[in-house]
Amino acid sequence: IESRLMRESLQDRRVVAGTDSERDVHIFPDAALIGIGGQSIFDRGKDAILPLVEELAQGWGLSVVRDDAAVRIEVAGKEPGPTLALASHLDVVPAGQGWTRDPFTPAIVEEAGEQRMYGRGSCDAKASVSAMLWAAHDVARAGGPRRGRLLVILGYCEETRDTSMPRAVPRCGAIDAAVVGEPTGLDLAVAQRGLLMVDLLAH
């Protein structure tokens, strides 16, 4: 039951088998992204984290647009062709209680022979954000795609019912394929079971 519901329904073994097999590379989120925060109601840090990502991309010479729906970064190809989108979000779930360390002071700790980063949002989804930003940087530095374009879409308020992604995507033009950055244990997932949010009113 656990396998069918938790794993097999999310993975296509043919896709996994067709990818290159390499040692997992651990990409730690930029410490500044963790320290700034950006909680799901987007009160903490939004005036810092959005321009930080924008300025980082601009500093790399990338084409970037920041509006009320997302920070969008585009790396154009040499010829027209399909668009691959890398999509994630900049907000995090509020820290809540029970932390044994400051959730907004990132720390890299050696545990069980490997390094781990602790900090609110380091997994969901600042790791994806950092990896996608560096992917755009590396593709641009290599001269861009041969055809088409690479598009990074970093939305807001994903951790709430008011996610900005439905507004951001139509502004991007046609998208042929997308990789969504969410914690999957570095497994390729091709489906999601979905999310149900219920308001219960008691009288």
List keywords for this structure.
alpha/beta; single chain; about 200 residues; two-stranded antiparallel sheet; five-stranded mixed sheet
Question: What report would you give on this structure?
Answer:
By secondary structure, this protein is an alpha/beta fold. Helices cover 27% and strands 22% of the residues. The protein has helices at 2-7, 13-17, 31-36, 46-59, 122-141, 165-168, and strands at 63-66, 70-76, 79-89, 107-111, 114-118, 147-155, 177-180. The strands form two sheets. The protein has a five-stranded mixed beta sheet with strand order 1-2-6-3-7, with helices on one face. A two-stranded antiparallel ribbon has the order 4-5. The longest helix has 20 residues, at 122-141. The chain is globular and about 55 Å long. It starts with a helix and ends in a 23-residue tail after the last strand. Mean pLDDT is 80; it is low at 1-11 and 22-27.
Overall morphology: globular
| Main beta-sheet strand count, sense and barrel state | 5 strands, mixed
Strand order of the largest sheet: 1-2-6-3-7
Strand portion, in percent? 15-25%
The Cα radius of gyration reads 18 Å
Termini gap: 38 Å
**What structural category characterises the helix and strand content?**
alpha/beta
- Assembly state (oligomeric): single chain
One letter per element, helices H and strands E, the order comes to HHHHEEEEEHEHE
Mean pLDDT: 80
Helix % is: 25-40%
Separate helix tally: 6
Q: Extract low-pLDDT stretches.
A: 1-11, 22-27
How many E strands?
7
